[in-house]
Amino acid sequence: MSLAADARDAVRERPFLLDALRAGVVNYAAAAAYLDLGDDDAVAAALRRFADDLSDLESASREVTVTMRSGVGLVGEDIDASDGDPVLSVAGVELAGGGPLTAIIAEGDVGTDYLTTVLARLDAESVVVDAAGVAGDTLAVVVPRRQGAAALRIVESASNAIYS
Q1: Distance CA 42, CA 19 (A)
Q2: How far apart are CA 71 and CA 113, in angstroms?
Q3: What InterPro entries does this protein's entry cite (predicted)?
Q4: pLDDT of residue 110
């Protein structure tokens, strides 16, 4: 494999660097040194060529409605029985009403890119995420009760900054 192919593969393994290349905010010499693939000058040149081939990173607003549901818990652990429909269910594990957590629900134009943005922003704000998922036009993020208001604010604001 060529150095250019190695550089492209290394960037794809680091989505943050791929986004930075698409946004045009990369110091190529620093990125080449970080990737540590060999001759930094050659890697920097390969990164420049790769960046030229990428589509620009563009933001778009989304139409979403965000709500908060307090008192969510893990069925069978935090609560004995489901209180109505589960907030989130993955492979037989359900979160429903009656527990110590808070669910933030976004409905509308959501998808995995929206979830990715929400999770990155929650991480940046040190909000603990106990569970998260997206299906159809609904996204759910489950956080500790005390972090519910912060999570609500973050999920709402993410609808104005989804990058694709």
Answers
A1: 21
A2: 27
A3: DUF7523 (IPR055945)
A4: 87
Q: Where are the domains of the chain?
A: 3-57, 60-163
Task: Report the distance separating Cα 96 and Cα 94, nearest Å.
Answer: 6
Q: Does residue 147 surpass a pLDDT of 80?
A: yes
Residue 118 · residue 141 · CB < 8 Å = yes
Residue 109 sits at φ, ψ, to 5 deg, of -85, 70
pLDDT at 143 over 80: yes
- pTM value is 0.75
pLDDT given for residue 80 in this prediction:
57
Distance of CA 31 to the CA centre of its chain: 22
Do the bridges between strand 138-144 and strand 93-108 make them parallel or antiparallel, or are there none, so unpaired?
antiparallel
pLDDT tens digits for range 33-65: 999 999 999 999 999 999 999 988 776 677 889
The yes-or-no verdict on residue 163 having pLDDT over 60 is no
The two three-digit tokens of residue 118, written as one number: 């929400």
Looking at CATH, the fold of the domain delimited by 60-163 is given as: Alpha-Beta Plaits (3.30.70)
Beta bridge partners of 143: 102
Q: What are phi and psi of 8, to 5 degrees?
A: -60, -45
